[in-house]
Each structure stands twice: as structure tokens, then as C-alpha cells.
Design a protein that fits this description.
Blueprint (H helix, E strand, L loop, with lengths): L1 E8 L3 E8 L4 E8 L4 H15 L5 E9 L2 H8 L3 E2 L2 H12 L5 E5 L4 E7 L2 E8 L7 H10 L4 H8 L13 H13 L4 H19 L10 E4 L6 H11 L3 E2 L7 H14 L17 E7 L8 E7 L2 E6 L5 H4 L11
Parallel strand pairs: 1-4, 4-5, 6-9, 9-10
Antiparallel strand pairs: 1-2, 2-3, 6-7, 7-8, 11-12, 12-13
Length: 327
């Protein structure tokens, strides 16, 4: 069986998928990143090797997410693309007529506008947590319940209260005030869902032409309270596609397949990298006044790659050719 791997490494979760040549999901793994991208990549590859059939052949690998370059070096990626591209590619496979993609993850959120299958605009929020899943996680913890229970109980709300959701600090203060006033937990929970959606639409979606079909994906799409709040706010249906929580990884795998069909082989380093001893470090580049912090990864004392500057100086030069005069 020919298989294509897609890996999406985010700040909160890391997703792995394996697709067959027809684009069907063969396997998927969903792990917490916990600030250790290298360790979680090695763990994920180890688990995937154990779960996949013995006769599979990896024909291509794609990476995406905030640590896509780091992961690309470790696994030997054939294609490394940003989240916008991967989310769009995957969504078009499941909903070809999509015009708006709403993606809400744990620490960031995105909106992608497509027209006739082409990305024409997008917006991202990587600073404020009030428009992302961690906003709900924090409030669920405050209410002593897990996030899975949060969504189901929010659906039971009949008279939701308005929560000030522009900031997580203000939201928590307002939530406590509503509890003290005697409002039910269900009404408060759905009020929090509405607050997140308001914040998302008023910030990330501001100025965007949000047209149906609208697809909602990311880990937060598991929360039916958010799905309901989106439908009510947009006054239209919202599609939650299959495998919505791993769409970025699916897009990476699909792009890896596309790349593999144009090349003569894969750069995949093999599942054995799960046992390697990688080391990361950083230094300050003194080439110009920007003084960028450059990240680098090494194995057994040998530097494999460097990246992270505002220009592409360190990415476009082979490691062996990079002079110490820039350090």
C-alpha cells in the first residue's frame, strides 16, 4: 500500500495522518504538543509505525503548522507549506464548493476566503486567546468540568446570558458575576460560546465577505455549542466536515502526494528518526541591524538546518556554506 504522511505541529496539538493514493484516511494520531515538538514528533511516528500495516510504503511526507520547518528537517519532508494553504487544500477535497473556512484551534484562529476554489483573502489571530479554544478551556477549568461536557451542556441553554468576551480576564470576571446573580450554568456556558463567536467575527472576520457554503473546522468544531452559536450569528448553515480536527495534516499529505507525482522519490528519513537524539539551539544573527534569533537543529553534533530570520539568508544557503561571520 502506498501511503502519504501529513504532519501538523501546532502550539497545543500535533496531528498525524496517513492517506492512501485515493486520498482516503488510513490512520490518524492526535497528540498534545506540550511545548516539546521534537519529542511529540518522535512519539507520533513511533505510534504510526505500530498502527500502520507492515506492507505500507511511504511515498511522500508534508508538514505544516507553527513548527513545520523544524519537523520538516526531522522527518525529511517533501513539501513544507503554511496552514492557510493546507487548510484550503483539505477543505476543497471534502467540500469543493466552499467559499468560507472558519478554523478555530487551541491557541489561534483563522478565516480563509475562497472563490472558485482559489484563496482570495485570509485572516489570522495568533495573539489574543479570546477567539480561540483556550478561552473555553480556561473557563471550563474554572467551572470544574471537562471541555467535552462543556459543549453538551451549552446546548441545553434556553436563556443564554451575555458575557463580555473581548478578553479572557474580563470574561472570567463577568462569568463569576453572572453566577452570583443566579443564572444557570447552561446559560452561562452558551453565553461563553456566543462570546467566542462574537470575538471571532468582530476581529478575524472583520471586513471579510463571509459567504456560504461555510465550513467550520479545527479542534473547537467538536464543541456543538460553538457550532450552534456560529449558525445563529451567521444566520446560515455551517458545515463541519469529517476529520475536521486534522484538516491541516490532511492538506499536507495531499500536497505531499502531488509533489511525489512530479518527483522521483521521497526525502522521508524513515520511522527510525523516532529513536534519534536531536538537539535544538539558537543564536543571534549579526548580518544586519535586525539581529534576528536564528534557530538550528543538530544530530550527533552535526547541524542539519537553520531558520527563523526575517529574511531567508539561513534557509537558502546549504548548512556547509554558512559562514561564521554572520554569527
Amino acid at each position: 500500500m502506498d501511503v502519504y504522511l501529513g504532519i501538523d505541529v501546532g502550539s497545543v496539538t500535533t496531528k498525524f495522518v496517513a492517506l492512501d493514493k485515493d486520498g482516503q484516511l488510513v490512520d490518524s494520531i492526535y497528540l498534545r504538543t506540550q511545548g516539546k515538538p521534537i519529542a511529540v514528533i518522535q512519539q507520533g511516528l513511533k505510534e504510526m509505525r505500530e498502527e500502520l500495516p507492515q506492507d505500507i510504503i511511504i511515498r511522500g511526507v508534508g508538514t505544516t503548522g507553527s513548527a513545520r520547518y523544524l519537523v520538516g528537517v526531522i522527518v525529511g519532508a517533501d513539501v513544507i507549506k503554511n496552514e492557510i494553504t493546507n487548510q484550503a487544500v483539505a477543505t476543497l477535497r471534502y467540500v469543493p464548493e466552499v467559499q468560507t473556512i472558519i478554523e478555530i484551534g487551541g491557541e489561534d484562529s483563522k478565516i480563509i476566503i475562497l472563490r472558485r476554489g482559489i484563496v482570495t483573502d485570509f485572516g489570522m489571530n495568533t495573539v489574543c486567546a479570546a477567539g480561540a479554544g483556550s478561552f473555553l478551556d480556561h473557563q471550563a477549568l474554572r467551572l470544574n468540568m471537562n471541555i467535552e461536557e462543556f459543549g453538551q451542556r451549552a446546548l441545553q441553554s434556553e436563556n443564554p446570558v451575555r458575557i463580555a468576551g473581548r478578553c479572557t480576564v474580563f470574561a472570567e470576571s463577568d462569568m463569576i458575576h453572572k453566577q452570583q446573580m443566579g443564572h444557570s450554568i447552561e446559560d452561562i456556558l452558551y453565553g461563553l460560546c456566543q462570546a467566542l463567536v462574537r470575538n471571532y467575527l468582530n476581529n478575524i472576520g472583520l471586513g471579510k465577505e463571509i459567504l456560504p457554503p461555510i465550513v467550520f473546522q479545527g479542534g473547537v468544531a467538536f464543541n456543538q455549542g460553538i457550532v450552534r452559536a456560529l449558525k445563529e450569528s451567521l444566520a446560515t448553515d455551517v458545515i463541519v466536515p469529517p476529520h475536521h480536527e486534522v484538516m491541516g495534516a490532511i492538506g499536507a499529505a495531499l500536497l505531499a502526494q502531488e509533489e511525489a507525482e512530479k518527483s522521483n522519490g521521497t526525502k522521508f528519513n524513515g520511522f527510525g528518526v523516532s529513536e534519534a537524539n536531536y538537539r535544538t539551539s539558537s543564536f543571534e544573527c549579526k548580518t544586519c541591524s535586525n539581529l534576528c534569533e536564528i534557530a538550528q537543529i543538530s544530530l550527533n553534533g552535526k547541524i542539519l538546518a537553520r531558520w527563523g530570520g526575517r529574511c531567508d539568508l539561513w534557509e537558502r544557503m546549504p548548512v556547509s556554506a554558512k559562514s561564521h561571520k554572520y554569527l
